[in-house]
Amino acid sequence: MLTDILEIHFLELTKLNDNEKINGNGLTDWLMFLKSDSKEVFDMLAKKNKEINKAYDLLKKMSDNKQERYLYEQRQAAISDELTRVEESYEKGWVGGKEEGKEEVIKVMKKKGMTDEEISEITDIDIEIVKSVQI
Asked: What pTM does this model have?
């Protein structure tokens, strides 16, 4: 289902000019980071952009250590699995109209540390109902 909540942009790295200047423009810098295979370009981008610097540090760490890379991939898979479970619980509660499904969604969100107000706002469930659900 498409909504107006999410935007999707396609960026063609092949159309990025190799001589493009690294100028602090966030999008251009990120595209250069994704396209490049040069350590010098990575270093230059990392110096100019703190977010790219974080990504570059993570890339170096993952590249150097196979165990770290494996753990990172496992963590990402676990996060993806959890999101799928939450989405399925959410669909069970709303599409099926089952109260127990809504309660399960609230419990999962509370376990993730979300406040009652955040849960109510995201799910559009009355705040009093959200507060009544115990983990």
From this structure: 0.39
Higher pLDDT, 16 or 36: 36
Helices of type H across 17-65: 26-35, 39-48, 50-64
Rounded to 5 degrees, φ, ψ at 27 are: -65, -45
Confidence of residue 72 (pLDDT cuts 50, 70, 90): confident
Tell me how far CA of residue 40 lies from CA of 13, 33, 37, 43, 45, in angstroms. 19, 11, 9, 5, 9
90-95 long-range contacts, CB within 8 A, separation 24+: 90/123
Q: What is the distance, to the nearest Å, from the Cα of residue 14 to the centroid of all Cα atoms in its chain?
A: 25
DSSP strand E in 32-119: where?
Answer: none
Q: Are 29 and 52 in contact (CB under 8 A)?
A: yes
Structure tokens at 41: 């370009």
